[in-house]
């Protein structure tokens, strides 16, 4: 069953880790966030909203349609002064037009139907000032289908449960469709890049197991029963060459466009 972002039991699903250096580096290669007004749409628990604040943003507006996710983001960003939380839908956020320098959307559009994605891109365009940058980060079908390995632990999920590939293939964006959607709503200089983002380092296997058991940050695991997850955890444990200092990486695609 698809993840319910409003359910109390999914509290802290997108919380409990920090953006890693690889992510900061890639953002720095794209833009200078210092002094900018930034909206993090589909912010979840605000992991990346914090990161934008760390990068020197003038303001970060965290938008999400889920009260539970916004409560998590509030908890995660409580000491930061330049953060505003706003309940809103990525298709019509309610934020003023021409108010932002950067719109960031990570792991959002695979939760939005293919027909609605162009509305989402249009909303990002409406919010940006002229010259502002849209940064969309998500996993494509190609990113998802990379095999399981100690460097790509997520790949083991599909090795054990191949039927989940169909579920993923249906919701994951296609690179060219996104590029065309960006152009359709008026973005210029549309670019795409692939990158390997370090998600986190687990000191020991039980930390990784706990993350999977709680289905943290991986909505695909909501398609599995507790028993199936337990089997998957055993499989991963037997596949990894070392059960300490486990680095988990994920393959991502980033699309950028300029208004
Ligand atoms: C997979 S989580 C990603 C959270 C965060 N961006 C991150 O990368 O850690 C997707 C988030 O998008 C939100 N979301 C999904 N569809 C949305 C929509 N149409 N409008 C606003 N938020 C949405 C969910 O509530 C959830 O918090």
UniProtKB/TrEMBL annotation:
Residues 40-135 form the Methyltransferase type domain. Keywords: Methyltransferase, Transferase. GO terms for biological process: methylation. InterPro entries: Methyltransf_11, Methyltransf_Superfamily, SAM-dependent_MTases_sf. One of its GO terms (molecular function) is S-adenosylmethionine-dependent methyltransferase activity. Gene3D superfamilies: Vaccinia Virus protein VP39 (3.40.50.150). PANTHER family: METHYLTRANSFERASE (PTHR42912). This is Type 11 methyltransferase. It comes from Xenorhabdus stockiae.
């Amino acid at each position: 069953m698809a993840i319910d972002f409003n359910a109390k039991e999914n509290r802290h699903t997108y919380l409990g880790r920090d953006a890693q250096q690889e992510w900061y580096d890639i953002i720095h290669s794209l833009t200078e966030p210092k002094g900018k007004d930034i909206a993090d749409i589909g912010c979840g628990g605000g992991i990346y909203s914090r990161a934008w604040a760390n990068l020197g943003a003038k303001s970060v507006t965290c938008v999400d349609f889920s009260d539970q996710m916004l409560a998590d983001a509030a908890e995660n960003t409580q000491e930061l002064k330049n953060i505003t939380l706003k309940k809103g839908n990525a298709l019509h956020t309610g934020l003023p037009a021409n108010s932002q320098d950067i719109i960031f959307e990570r792991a959002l559009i695979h939760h939005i139907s293919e027909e609605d994605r162009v509305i989402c891109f249009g909303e990002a365009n409406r919010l940006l000032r002229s010259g502002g940058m849209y940064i969309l980060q998500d996993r494509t079908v190609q990113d998802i289908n990379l095999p399981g390995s100690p460097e790509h632990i997520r790949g083991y999920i599909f090795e054990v449960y191949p039927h989940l590939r169909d579920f993923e293939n249906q919701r994951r964006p296609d690179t060219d469709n996104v590029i065309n959607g960006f152009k359709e709503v008026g973005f210029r200089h549309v670019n795409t890049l692939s990158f390997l983002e370090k998600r986190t380092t687990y000191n020991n296997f039980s930390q990784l197991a706990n993350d999977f058991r709680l289905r943290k940050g991986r909505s695909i695991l909501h398609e599995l029963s507790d028993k199936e997850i337990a089997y998957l955890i055993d499989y991963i444990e037997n596949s990894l060459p070392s059960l300490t200092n486990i680095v988990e990486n994920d393959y991502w695609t980033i699309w950028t466009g300029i208004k």
